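User: My collaborator sent over this chain with a note saying "see what the structure looks like." That's all I know about it. Can you take a look?
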Amino acid sequence: MIFENFLDHILLSGDVLWQKILLEPFALYKPRKKMLYKYRKPSEHTFINIDLCQLRFSFPTELNDPFDCKIDVSFNGEQSDWKRWLDSQPYDSSKKAVVWEHLKRINFDGKKFSGTREQEETKSILVLALSEINDNVLMWSHYSKYHTGFCLGFNTSIERNSLGIIFDKNDIVFKVPGITPGFLPVRKVIYQVDMPPSFNSLKDDVKELMNFTITKHPDWAYEKERRIALAPAQIKQQMVNYEKDVLKEVIIGYKTKKEDIDRLLRILKSNYPNSGKDIELKRAVPIEGKYLLKIEAI
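Assistant: Without extra context I'll predict from the sequence alone. Here is the result:
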């Protein structure tokens, strides 16, 4: 039945939801610009992505936290609330009529459609995870193959009090007036034990759904994550091109092999502005006497 795919329908309605999120500031005060980082292992896939200036957005089932993006949805309201909700949905009149008849038969009882949507059921969400830090020992181990990979630093910009990254405008399906084409806001992840309150589909502002995409257990707080969350219909494919001048920093792991470093340098020289000279090259180095890393310029 149509309600079982409610989340897909409401998120895939596309531009209206995303414009509402973009046009309202995420904070009362303008954030400071900062570099955001992506840890990468030294794989063929990584080199191709850097070569093509691409970042990959992931479905919830591809994330390493099984609780990530689980969404608690409810349908609590009177007949008038159902009518208002149905009128707002992007269905044609014949489908709405079928839905309305079904609702009348069940006496507008929404309990059947309420509950937690598992990762496998939230295929209408794509996530790009980044970090505010570049020197975390665990992340270098987990995401950069035991310190043998790289950490990429991306420049950010600010639009309407929102921190974000500029991607290739041709890869972004929706457009928002007054926002730089290709700009996608990067939201700060909240770490807490409790899930956000259940989203009442009949009464709550649809923007509240975003809270489920940016809330994680405190065990993940060490990652200091920032992320972009959107619907698949809002980008042309999972691999999205970033503007070449957005990559501003490349940090080499302290165990990265010379042949991988040389290959990376060749890519930067041939494919990035000013032969890659505008990109700061750095290296992660252990601090003597401590279980810590420091990032040094090369």
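A starting point for your reply to your collaborator: Residues 1-19 have pLDDT under 50 and may be disordered.
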